[in-house]
Write a structure and sequence with these properties.
This is Thiamine-phosphate synthase. The chain is of the alpha/beta class. The chain has 14 helices and 8 strands. The longest helix has about 30 residues. The N and C termini lie far apart (about 55 Å).
């Protein structure tokens, strides 16, 4: 049995390598794809800082022939469907490695652990700079938006929808402690980014900021859009729910990136909320100047009527989260859109 000190050294050694490898992949795109010398230099400086911590005692703990992890793989690692997905996967790889280094580093060297934490926030900033604009471009292309609800096999259901082609997920869990929300949001962001999908947090810019989500979705009584923008910065997506033309006009004036239009039909997700109906969908089609998603009681039986009223994007909750086959349901809805 491996003693504790050796095991910790092996963990640190492996994750120092993993973080440096991921940074090198990002650096190469900054250098050759973007001709962005400043970002390439940031990546290089971080790699060199990690290298400075990679001491001989950590390197000599390595035992590659007996490492069971070398045989593990995942289908998502075998191919990338876009440049954004490739970059995002490697940002996730670096961030995960730095988090491991920070936690296990507390058992090794306090200064080391603090350095890893600071590097992780540097990586968040670089990710926002390089990916932010791409994500806003992706928002313009997506047509199906999933808002989550608590169900059994929560992450499994969402991954099945992502496998069906879903490209944007909003994490919504109203009645849950903040610590649980943080853990779930962080895990869900990683899952979405593995599939090249946008990840949005409902109501809470602070949680969106903490987990480095792609944006936040605000209701009519939530934090003002301007304050959320101050918190999250210009590269993050901010959406807002609207139920009538007046709310739409206000949201557009506030500079949101997209709006929700509904509820089109009455839904238990918005209990007691009167349906806005297809008339509001027609109004949005004629007047909205940002991407908009019809939402509220939409499923495979009525999405055709919503499309006929002028919608090219819809958001759903129960249709996927409570569906028998999230993958085929996602594909079915996408085909109708």
């Amino acid at each position: 049995m491996i003693n504790q000190k050796t095991a910790i050294y092996r963990i640190l050694d492996a994750n120092l390598d993993r973080a440096r490898e991921g940074l090198r992949i990002v650096e190469e795109w900054c250098r050759f794809g973007l001709n962005d010398g400043e970002s390439a230099s940031v990546c290089k400086d971080m790699r060199q800082e990690l290298g400075g911590w990679h001491s001989d005692d950590l390197r000599t703990s390595r035992d590659t022939p007996n490492d069971p992890g070398t045989q593990l793989t995942h289908p998502q690692e075998e191919e990338r469907e876009s440049l954004e997905a490739l970059l995002q996967a490697n940002f996730c790889r670096v961030q995960e490695a730095l988090r491991v280094l920070e936690e296990y580093g507390k058992l090794y060297n306090g200064e080391f652990a603090t350095g890893m934490k600071q590097l992780r926030y540097q990586v968040y900033g670089l990710e926002s700079k390089l990916i932010g604009k791409s994500w806003q471009e992706l928002l313009n292309r997506v047509s199906l938006y999933l808002v989550t609800m608590p169900v059994d096999n929560f992450f499994g259901v969402i991954e099945l929808a992502l496998k069906g082609g879903l490209k944007i997920v909003q994490y919504r869990h109203k009645n849950q402690d903040d610590l649980v929300k943080l853990k779930e949001a962080y895990k869900l962001r990683q899952l979405c980014h593995q599939y090249g999908a946008l990840f949005i947090v409902n109501d809470r810019p602070d949680i969106a900021l903490a987990v480095n989500a792609d944006g936040v979705h605000l209701g009519q009584t939530d934090m003002p859009v301007g304050l959320a923008r101050q918190m999250l910065g210009s590269n993050k997506i901010i959406g807002k729910s609207t139920t009538n033309p007046q709310e739409m006009a206000k949201a557009l004036a506030e500079g949101v990136d997209y709006i929700g239009v509904g509820p089109v039909y009455e839904t238990p997700t918005k209990a007691g909320k009167k349906a806005a109906g297809l008339e509001y969908v027609r109004y949005a089609q004629a007047n909205a100047t940002v991407p908009w998603f019809a939402i509220g009681g939409i499923d495979e039986t009525n999405v055709g009527d919503v499309v006929k009223a002028g919608a090219s994007r819809v958001a759903v909750v129960r249709a996927i989260m409570q569906g028998d086959n999230p993958t085929s349901m996602t594909q079915n809805l996408l085909s109708q859109l």
